[in-house]
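Class prep. Write one:
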Amino acid sequence: MKQLSSRTTALLGITAAGAAGLAAYWRWLRPWQLRWGATDAEVARAMPGDEIVARPHFHATRAVTVYARPEHIWPWLPQMGIGRAGWYSYDIIDNLGQPSARRILPEWQALKVGSLVPMSPVGELGLYVRAFEMHRWLLWDDRGQGKTTWVWGLYPMDEHATRLISRVRLRYDWLSPAIIFNLLLDAGDIVMMRKCMLGIKERAEALARG
């Protein structure tokens, strides 16, 4: 009984710590990470594809200032994906350990609506090009299922600087096995996205200088 009691106490302690951690994440960390780098105006701004996912559970708008013109930033977007240029993030996690490209890859520059943006090692899973306006915005979605959109927007500040904005809208399917991945993504997405956006910033600024 004493051993059972100690185990029960430990379990209750772990449960309480987990609940406290979740509450802290939901109260403080989640609101911050869902709008990393973005201003109030950028969070409120309408972006292409906003109407596709109704009442998203995950709605993240992130932004960074890139000291380059849109034409120096744009080429890094169409070529993203596993087996292509990578994600400019932590390659050991999201690009099979292969270094993300540091140059423009001409073979992936021609965008076509409906094309797959590969997010899996076998190249069969990912999002699809929904629509785009060159040098202005690029929208991916889940091929019309209405549960996921990811849009990239380029908003010039002046002739030498541009705001790069990424918005992900995701509606969870609570009964799907994928919900486990989605909940992990909810907390971990900012780690990869911050690195990705800073990676694009670094490459675009180098391209502008060169």
Helices lie at 2-33, 40-44, 70-73, 91-94, 179-209. The first helix runs from residue 2 to 33.
